[in-house]
Amino acid sequence: MDTGHTPSTPPLSCFTCHKHQDELTNTLKRCAKCQGALYCSRKCQTDDWKNHKRTCFSQAAPSASPQPSAPPPTPQRPTGHSPNPQRPTGQHNAGFNAVNQLLGLTNDDYLHALPEKEAFAQIIDCFRMRMEDEYVYGQNNFGIYGEENPVPVFKKFLDLAESRRGLLPPWWNAAKRRECERMAVDSKGWSDINCAVEKSDIQEHYKNGSMPMMLRVLGEKVYGRGFM
């Protein structure tokens, strides 16, 4: 019998812990790929990754554009793509030179003026931002995006950074590198390469809207190319 009542829409909730939006202080984030799954935190998204990835890629809208969201699950690697992001140098992303000049990064010594711990953090976050961009824009799944140990990829990233003359601070040496590598796998800290990071996370953490651009420019200088 028709009661005349319109069915109410179920409240939005986290796919893992099932907390409703009105119970949370932060806005639920959608999966970047399928835009369907909702998560209240990185931990909840990571915990659900193995289950969600089975349906995520097939449900993704072909025209969906990247937006602030939970870390994307792993897609199938496109045929013919190299499993190594250290491809030969190539073209920079559009706007690289303009941003490089606008943010005062043309001398390649941006990291030199930072305290050691801050320099480590930004080097690590540069890598994390690059892995996110490679996935979202380049359709490449390296490290955690390919369910692989991210440490070997990070070490190759540092190898490349060390090969770029003047890019790393003058105090950088083998001992400092080991310290940076330890910081990169510290699960209690912010700069953990086992956790995905996005533009909005970087902006919030550093309280700087330009920080994603700075890290992307740094990443292009390390890799010698853009991610698109």
Number of helices: 7
Average pLDDT level? 78
Classify the secondary structure makeup into a structural class: mainly alpha
Q: Percentage of helical residues?
A: 25-40%
* Net shape: globular
Radius of gyration: 19 Å
Number of strands: 2
Query: What is the topology, as strand order, of the major beta sheet?
Result: 1-2
Distance between the termini: 57 Å
* Low-pLDDT sequence parts: 61-83
Descriptive overview:
- The chain has 7 helices and 2 strands; from the N terminus they run ββααααααα.
- It has a two-stranded antiparallel sheet.
Layout: helices, strands, pairs:
Elements: E1 29-30, E2 38-39, H1 42-59, H2 96-102, H3 116-136, H4 151-163, H5 174-184, H6 199-206, H7 211-223
Antiparallel strand pairs: 1-2
Helix pairs in contact: 3-5, 3-7
Quick summary of this structure?
The protein has 7 helices and 2 strands; from the N terminus they run E-E-H-H-H-H-H-H-H. It has 228 residues and is mainly alpha-helical.
Label this structure with key terms.
mainly alpha; two-stranded antiparallel sheet; 2 strands; globular
